[in-house]
Amino acid sequence: MVTTTKKFTLAEFLDFDDGTDQRYELEHGELRKIPSESDLNNQIAIYLMSVFLQFISPRLLRRGSEVVVTGSRATVRVPDLMVLTEELATALKGASRSISTSDMPPPALVVETVSPGKENSTRDYRYKRSEYAARGISEYWIVDPGQAQVIVLTLVDGLYEEAVCQGETRLVSKVFPALELTAQQVLWAGEDIDIKV
After folding, report:
1. Does the keyword Nuclease apply (predicted)?
2. Which of 28, 42, 78, 172 could form a disulfide with 73 if both were Cys (CB 3.0 to 4.6 A apart)?
C-alpha cells in the first residue's frame, strides 16, 4: 500500500520520521508501509536464522535491515532475512542505521517470504528479483507458502538462474554449499523435522 504520492529522494527517505513506530520501504520514490508479518513468516525467518547460524557468525545475519537497490527512482527494501558478507559487516560496523547503501558491498543472500495477495507476489517474484540482481546480491530466496515452494535464485553473469524446490527437494546454495535443507523443512519452519548438517 502506497502511503503518499510525494516522491522521495533517498536522502529524504533516510531523514523521514512520522513520529510513529511504523516502518516503511521506499518503492520508486514512494513510501510504502510495511505491514506486520504473519506468524508463519516470522517462524520461517527465525528457523532459517537458526539453520544459518550453524555455518556463520551471528554478526553476519540481519532481520529488519534495509538495502538500497537500483532503479529509475530511489528504492529501499527490507528483506525478511539478510546474510551479509564480511566486507558488508565491516562497512556497517558502528553505523547509526542498519542499511546497506549502494556504495557498500551487496549482501550475500536475501530471503523474502511471500505474503498472500497478487501485489505481494508480484513484488517478490518480479520487482525484487530484478532489483536484487541489479544490486549484485549473490542469492535471493523466495519462500512461498501459498505455492508450497522455495525458489533459490543464484546470480550468474548479472541475471538470476532459478531452481524451484518443493517437498523433499534439497535447496542448493552457493552461499551455504554444505547446507542440507529441503523446501518442506523451510515451509514448515522446521517443525517436527530434523536437518542434516
Report:
1. yes
2. 28
* 105: amino acid identity, one letter: P
Direct distance between the N- and C-terminal alpha carbons of the chain, in angstroms, rounded to an integer: 40
CA distance 107 to 174: 13
pLDDT digits (tens, 9 = 90+) for 65-99: 999 997 667 889 999 999 999 999 999 999 989 99
φ, ψ of residue 142 in degrees (nearest 5): -110, 110
On whether the CB atoms of residues 31 and 4 are closer than 8 A, the answer is: yes
Per-residue cell: 71: 532503479
Q: How many residues does the chain have?
A: 197
pLDDT tens for residues 5-60?
688 888 888 888 888 888 888 888 888 888 777 888 899 999 999 999 999 999 99
Alpha carbon of 42 to those of 46, 132, 133, 163: distances in Å? 6, 21, 25, 23
